[in-house]
Amino acid sequence: MDGRTVDARGMLCPKPLILVKKALAGMAVGERLTVLLDNETACDNVRRFLQDHGGNPVGETADGVYTLRAVKAQGVAGAVADERCELPGGVAAAEGSGHAGRTGRAGGRPGQAGQDPAGVGPVSGATGVPAGGMPAGGQGMAVEVPVSRDRRPGGGPMAEAGPRRPAVVVLNREWMGTGSEDLGRLLLQGCLNTLKELDPLPAAVVLYNAGVRLACEGSPVLGPLKELEAAGVRLLVCGTCLDFFELKPKRQVGMVSNMYEILQTLAAAGPVINP
Question: What global pTM score does this model have?
């Protein structure tokens, strides 16, 4: 069976990932796929996506070109043929190729919303959100814990009332509010220490622009962020932003994400909290 080739050289995330998803949507099970890239972050994104969907990618590097070879696995078509891919794709096109970032897989912690991301590259999607909306983790909790105080994302004493979309928190700077930055830094520390006590917990915390500094060495809020992650809250750290500030080696918490996953997470959220 003839294979297909996606030439994504010269492209930054999430464009290569979107092209790979579209290619897989039109491929037969068992058909071979070759992806050419010249960006390490994009290569990592695509490799993780293929791994998460059973493609068993094999890679090699020569003359600055990353080559990934994989075989389409059973059941991938539904995950990649969805028209939901078009919205993030359109945004990426509007913003150009300036969104380089890599995405880590959700780790499968108990109660984590979206444990097997399906639409975001290495991650593979990252929210595990069906076309209609509610993260699968939240729906499961409504059945598992009908009355007890379940603090996992999407759980809680009101879960028996029916599925609901858990909140997502956005951190795009190093302080909270406007006015005094010194005061804002204190407020943000108080905010995150309080956030980990909420019932239910948010589904995710998204960090982008200067907010990525909060996930790096020297951050005064690494403690509460690590506690949130340990409790099952997904921490998405913008890879493009880490690259821009040259902070990628200093990241201490969260998974490196990209614009596709960030938009997918925000679009599927209930309340979006931007302190």
Answer: 0.56
